[in-house]
Design goal:
Number of domains: 2
Mean pLDDT: 88
Number of helices: 12
Shape: elongated
Helix content: 40-55%
Strand content: 5-15%
CATH superfamily of the largest domain: P-loop containing nucleotide triphosphate hydrolases
Strand order of the largest sheet: 2-3-4-1-5
Low-confidence stretches: 287-292
CATH class of the largest domain: Alpha Beta
Order of helices and strands: HEHEHHEHHEHEHHHHH
Distance between the termini: 56 Å
CATH architecture of the largest domain: 3-Layer(aba) Sandwich
Largest sheet: 5 strands, parallel
Radius of gyration: 25 Å
CATH topology of the largest domain: Rossmann fold
Length: 311
Amino acid sequence: MPNPFFYGGRVNPEQFVGRRAELQRIFAGLEVAHTGQMQSFSVVGPRRIGKSSLLFYAATKFAAHLAQPAHYRFGYFELSDAHCRTLDGLLDGILKQLDVGQLDGKKSALTEFQDAIIALKARGAFPVVCLDEFEELTDHHDEFTADLYDSWRYLINQQAIAFITASKSPLIDLAQTLGYTSPFFNVFTHLPLGELTDDEARELIARGANCDRPFTPTEQSDALLLADKHPYKLQLAGSLLYQAKADHRTVDWAELRREFVTQLQSVGLEANAARTLKRVGQKSKGTVISATKAAIQELFKAWIDSMSKPR
């Protein structure tokens, strides 16, 4: 397998790793649709933390997480797409992805959309709409007015649709900033997205063990030490390590660390290169000291055991 690490964009669902707790919570909130209810979720986290990858994975791999996936219809929308910059374009796109036709212009766009979603519910289907980069809608508030959010809240009240949004700020904060009073913004379950768990971070970097330039256990540990549990940083560290191992070269970790910090600075994730390199150096020393202490303790224990044995 070639380089299994990718940074700079949305991760392919086939290479998605982790977020088990978040996915379990999302699908548990959707699984109760048979009771006439579905929960909507607002995924909130800083840039480059993996919000887009999570939403896209949920929209494409839902069948693996739901007991009766045939009843659900998912749509994923990256709201920076030019097709989503107008009300008609967005609503028409949603209807097409949900496979319920398209706007025909005989009524207002909102009315047509509502009627189509209500009809879909009547057929026993559960539509789930994933809206990535939700700030794009609020940034164009002249096009996406309070009428849109009131209409969507109506559909949520009818248990006809669920939304999963991704944004850097909580939806209620976005609404307050723009003076929106629609109750749409306060029906979501807030789902903060932070770094991966320890196990998930190790699982992600362990992908390097099975590529055509396999990472040794020590190299995996060093990459984890550099990137910690941040998904973007782990992908970056893994990719740089893969490149550094070309032609079976000895990895120059000092150069790799410098390149790692440079790349982080270029996307605004690292403002102080010296501080990061110092932190990694301190952790490396701490790891060596801990390992030395552990070895000494083992030797001492072995000596005590040997002295206690009858001669």
